[in-house]
Amino acid sequence: MNPDRFHGPVLSLFRMVTGSLFLFHGMSSMFGLFGGARGTGHAVEFGTWPSWWAALIQVTCGGLVLVGLFTRTSATIASGSMAYAYFVVHQPVALLPLNNGGEPSAMYCWAFLLIAVLGPGSLALDAAIRRSRGHHGRAHTAVRSGANSAG
């Protein structure tokens, strides 16, 4: 049994789970869903820095990573936003994530960095678009080269 055959699907599952958790986190802050921002039952006030903007990144990038569209770019932005959250919000409280409440920020930062580096996996819109362009491009090339050889 070759464990490498699971690489694409497992990476895709990791991306989908990470993206959906990030999306839900953003939806709780932006729309007050799932218990609201920090369990308050309410959304953060529109335009509030940095909370509302972080929620916007979480909803947008989380959704894009979930479906695997513009995955590397979205994951890079999400990773950077979580690095910002860790170093600006959590790290000044205490050095270690265990002591400063920054474990989720640190984990998201590294998870999204992993996705940005490894890509979306085989079950993603990015992969489907790449496959369709590849098949279309080869068919177009074959038709063109066939026409050239006939002429």
Give a written overview of the molecule:
The relative contact order is 0.14. Helices cover 72% and strands 0% of the residues. It has helices at 7-31, 51-67, 71-90, 97-100, 103-118, 125-150. The protein contains six helices and no strands. Helix 2 packs antiparallel against helix 3. It is globular, with a radius of gyration of 20 Å. It is an all-alpha fold and 151 residues long.
Layout of strands and helices, then pairs:
Layout: H1 7-31, H2 51-67, H3 71-90, H4 97-100, H5 103-118, H6 125-150
Task: Give a quick set of tags describing it.
disordered C terminus; mainly alpha; globular; 151 residues; 0% strand
Uncertain ranges: 137-151
Rg (CA only):
20 Å
Taken as a percent bin, the fraction of beta residues is under 5%
* Helix and strand pattern: HHHHHH
Tally the helices: what do you get?
6
Q: What structural category characterises the helix and strand content? A: mainly alpha
